[in-house]
Amino acid sequence: MRNLIFRMGQMPVYREDIDWLRGIAVLAVVAFHFEVPGIWAGYVGVDIFFVISGYLITRLIVSEFAAENFLLAAFYERRIRRLLPALYAMVALTIIPAFIYLLPSERNEFFRSIVATILFCSNIFFWLQSGYFDYVSIDKPLLHTWSLAVEEQFYLVYPLLLWALSRVSKKRAVLLYWLTALTLVSFSANVWLMRGDNAAAAFYMAPPRAWEFLIGALLAFDVFPPNSVKVRALARGGAIILFAIAILGLRKESPYPGFNALLPCSGAVLFIWGGIGTGAVARCSFSPMQALGFFGKISYSLYLWHWPVFTLARFAKMNLVLDSVEKTALFLLTSVISYCSWKFLEQPFRRRAVAKTRQQMFLFTGIGSALVLAVCVITLVKGNVSESSDFVSARLNSFNEYDYKRLYNLGTCFGPTNAKFADACLRLDPSKTNVLLWGDSFAAHYVPGFKAVIDPTAANLMQATQPGCMPTLSVGGDSACSRFASEMRMFLEDHHPELVIISADWLEYSRRGFSSLTDDLKQSAANIEASGTRVIVLGPAVQFSSRLPAALLRAHFRGIEIHSADLLLSEIFELDRKMSAALSDSKGLSFLSVLDLVCPRRQCPLTVDDGVPLSFDHAHLTAEGSAYVINRLTPELILNNGKD
């Protein structure tokens, strides 16, 4: 569909460059989700879409204000024609494989997400589910609809806001003033939420995301249009550089949105601004820009379809892992489906070949919504009755609601609610061997095992664990992790336990730089060891490619035997080898390989104690799994350290 610039008193002009920009945005998102190497932050494509949307919608509304023919009903009709037919088709067709490949609990969650999607509140739905242990987005085929919900919530409010502001004053300067003020308020709220460790709200919620639409809206007023070909070229070049920095430079652990979102959003503003006043140019059918424009035209359908196709294809495999050939085939399939969706759904509805009148379109929307919601309600009601009554299924299903909080001491010694560990977490006992367990959740998950295995009359277990924070003494800044490092630095300066055991998600932290990881560990261990404290670094924990209980349940339903090699993340063994080589000869610390002791010949247990999964998600240990692992580590730890 053409992108229109509405000039006062002039005919609309098609801007092919906005299709290019859409192409960049959607291909970045797809490449990120399809795990293309090097595309670390393709998710920023969503931010680019938000800027484009704010620009085009504002241009349209303001032009209709000027022509005095703006109708709110007409605006919403256009939005419905643009978004809902393709969305409803995707949701309806996704239901079929969901019944085939999803487990009962996954299926119920899927239908709840459909309800949230139809009601345009899926961003709130997924925000409420977000958290440190919300590991696998692969379990959520409709996760990507959060951005559509944000967009629709913006559309519900924004036209009314513009209309109200236009009633206050007809002067463009006044409108620009208020929109600028709202942009700054929204951006400030976003940054404030990020600094307050509420990144999930900053990411999913519409108010702290509104500034991305609004900077596009400000651009629509053409206050300073580019005045030369050279300026346009510089703007486009700057935009590409900003996109490259964002897509290739940001990492999974990079704070987002916040200030980092300025990269793609500023790039989108420069790109759009550089094309103001230009039209389409005749090009060769096989030119790169034509190809980019093609993906821009089908970008909405491609965005809709790529994620459910990818997730459901992974559900069809036991280990939920796709190889590069399968991913390439899926991309081609998704492109074909998306083109058909654009050609036979988007275009007919937007051109009024289907549902010719506004009343027909609203009726179609109402009936379609009612039918989808009815299917969801019926399925969810039936889903409350267990689909399988056998003991194995019931037991494995119970791990969907596993209570790790009590076991890991959440709120006191693990992620303390007041950002300060309770006194009992770090209290030394002079009559016993004092053992400090220091790290993130991959340290906290050993607590149940230590409590089950060690002799409490001989050893005193202390715990200092913070979610998502690498256990070193050198973290800077003003984040929760820097506060954690500072508290531990002060504690270890004044207190000297006999043994400090360090454990963390080394696989995740190594992605930030292996050398910096090992250097930080060596330096921290040397500082601690100087006071006579032994330091042991536990190697990478057993990690799987998906949630272990779900994989076991899927194998049970399909009646097939499953082996650890089908599910293990192979990277952990290579990382274990590298860490052992880098740390084994380090002064002040000992490296202990968990994998060598738990997974001889790379054969890791999937269940312990007569069928209990080793972990309740992809890696975090159950209480029984923790005891199993610690039983094998204890002889190497020498916890009594010679004390009587």
Describe this structure in words.
With 644 residues, the chain is mainly alpha-helical. Helices cover 59% and strands 5% of the residues. The chain is built from 27 helices and nine strands. The strands form three sheets. Strands 4-3-5-6-7 form a five-stranded parallel beta sheet, with helices on both faces. Strands 1-2 form a two-stranded antiparallel sheet. It has a two-stranded antiparallel ribbon with strand order 8-9. Strand 8 and strand 9 form a beta hairpin. Helix 4 crosses helix 5, helix 5 crosses helix 6 and helix 19 packs across helix 27. The N terminus is likely disordered.
Question: So what's the overall shape?
Answer: globular
**Proportion of helical residues:** 55-70%
**From the helix content, strand content and strand pairing, which structural class follows?**
mainly alpha
For the secondary structure, the number of strands is: 9
Strand content: 5-15%
Uncertain spans, ≥5 residues at pLDDT below 50? 1-12
Report the span from N to C terminus: 80 Å
Radius of gyration, Cα only, in angstroms? Answer: 28 Å
